[in-house]
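FAQ: What does the model actually see?

It sees only this:
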Amino acid sequence: MLKRRLRVLLSVVAGFGFGVAMPATAGAVVIGVDDTNPAMFSDPRFLALNVTTARYTIPWDVVTRRADRGDLAAFRAWYRLAQADLVSPLISFGADYTNPAANYIPTVSQYKTAVKAFLKDFPQIKLYTAWNEPDFSYRTLARNPALAASYFNALYEMCRGCTVLAGDVYLPATGVATIDRSVATLGPWLRAYVKSLHHRPAGWALHDYTEIRARNTSQLRILMSMTSGAIWLDETGGVLRRGHWQYRNQSAAAAAKDEQYLLSLTRRYHRIARIYHFEWQGVASAGWDSGLIAPNGQIRPAYTVLLNWMRGRG
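And it is asked to produce this:
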């Protein structure tokens, strides 16, 4: 498989007219892509980035649920292609947001049973977060940071040879309105979460879309002040369109400037170990679009920013 990847990569690089170069940050910051569409693995532009890790957010009970809506088959197809390209998955468990009726918050016992089955079926996977955005203000789990911490404790204990990240949080420093009209902020939520951890995490995961757009690092600095160890920005990037939030839609060129700002943070905050850009390709009908590739298949400026940065020209 290694020979296959190198052969494909060299042909892609030659086709684009680029010289072979290692990323300027090799050994420092690892770049990944967060997208569940397996088509990216055969895209020459993906191969040109020489990405070695990708994130997949999956329902917590994808292996044990009674009614499988194709989620497990879709993941298996994605995983096969990731393996063929020598891309290591980062798996984030969480609620099934595509099916509102399935947004059930499990007990710790239920979580253990389901996740243990996943670990048994996919023993080669070693990178995990216990729950995607446990502080998501429109779900009941956000009001129970101790339960979210218990998921981390359970996953850590079940997967001893794994890298298990804590957090995977998104709340901004200034807070957002919750479903009951209260205001949730990252600091208090994180403080309660940390208090309930029984093990030292391998690192901390953060989704910092808001501060990337706002050009501030208050969210990141709160996380750094309350934790230690590596920080993985495991879902982030410049956003063109994002349904309802406080910022207006913007152009692809403006999103590229956000991408440039995001990458510049690695020079200021050395605890940042990984960045996973969400998403690979935008979908025209979706309310969200942060794709490096446009829905029509065209390269966006943010892709060029990322490619140049990885080649040491950013």
